[in-house]
């Protein structure tokens, strides 16, 4: 049985998108900087149909995440913002379960990505993702509300943050106001130029 | 000339105090956990008039901070909450400049701590602290408003966070909504059991 994981880039002040996110600016003002560490990496480029790129510790972390993930859960807004930019061959290459209120037929894309729309709640989406993932992990891709709900319900096993060295000053936080205290155990710290990878196990 | 530094313990969700802070619960609910890594250390105990304690990488970081700091700036609320618990021999052992609207005679305590009350703004408090610190650093002790104002004004050189492995779920953040973007450069990452020390230079 795999783990349920959250794996996100954030600024030192805790934002996962910059201010004023929306169509055409999916990551908000300045939000693209959170992901700068990833764009040049071989593993990331491969998943986006591009050749070449850097290898090394950062790339190992990206490869590890892609290899271990068997299914993905995301919120409706993230899907709606992403659908167009992700194009015909979205970077998930796995079944994706979208939490939404609006029923819709599954959407099959190239490269192994299928979007299934789940209308009976985030926990049902997680259950379906777990079945689809088998022995692999389920990754909670966001947005913030979906991730927060699952952490609050004690359903997440591991949190990894890629901390980008900047203050975004505004935007969306992953854990804006969780409303409950959660104990963690640090399981890995990797310091690379331009990003620090912090991984935690949720203590239950 | 020394640096202007911020050096704080925070939770992974960015809180420097837990919810409902106030007299008798200066760090808010659960907030004491942010500082658990420090209480057993020799350097911390020494400044609080206690003998013994652990040495090692965490203690080196505490010693370094105490040794390098020549003066402190803090906000009124932090002073008011701390005045009683800090007692006759406060842990600063350096001149402290309190930003307030209410004029008051300087307060001299044992062990080298003097509180000077500055009524003409946070930048004036910083200038006075710089003069008092000479070649040493000025530490911005908090609260959040004071720290945010100085970072926003581009007057802070270095930020160090001691990240405690927990989500506090609520409370006060150091950088709630800075409103401006600030580039940083990671200058040191030290991973210790129970805490990860992240240090950044502010890029100006």
Account of the 3D structure:
Two copies of one chain form a homodimer. Chain A is an alpha/beta fold and 204 residues long. Chain A has a single domain (4-12, 28-202), classed as Dihydrofolate Reductase, subunit A (3-Layer(aba) Sandwich). In chain A, 26% of the residues lie in helices and 32% in strands. The first copy, chain A, contains six helices and twelve strands. In chain A, the strands form two sheets. In chain A, strands 5-6-4-3-7-1-8-12-11 form a nine-stranded mixed β-sheet, sandwiched between helices. In chain A, strands 2-10 form a two-stranded antiparallel ribbon. The longest helix of chain A has 12 residues, at 57-68. Chain A is globular. Chain A starts with a strand and ends with a strand. The model of chain A has no long low-confidence stretch (mean pLDDT 94). Chain A binds chain B through residues 12-14, 18, 29-30, 151, 159, 161, 163, 165-170, 173-175, 177-186, 189, 191, 193-194, 196, 198, 200, and chain B through 12-14, 18, 29-30, 151, 159, 161, 163, 165-170, 173-175, 177-186, 189, 191, 193-194, 196, 198, 200.
Sum up the overall morphology of chain A in one term. Answer: globular
Strands in their spatial order, largest beta sheet of chain A: 5-6-4-3-7-1-8-12-11
CATH superfamily of chain A: Dihydrofolate Reductase, subunit A
CATH class wording of chain A:
Alpha Beta
Name the average pLDDT of chain A. Answer: 94
The beta-strand count of chain A equals 12
Structural class of chain A: alpha/beta
Low-confidence stretches of chain A: none
List the quaternary state of the chains: homodimer
User: What is the CATH architecture annotation of chain A?
Assistant: 3-Layer(aba) Sandwich
End-to-end CA span of chain A: 17 Å
Counted by DSSP, the helix tally of chain A is: 6
Along the chain, the helix and strand elements of chain A come as EEHHHEHEEEHEHEEEEE
Main beta sheet of chain A:
9 strands, mixed
Helical fraction of chain A: 25-40%
Determine the strand fraction of chain A and express it as a percent band: 25-35%
Most extensive chain contact? A-B, 36 and 36 residues
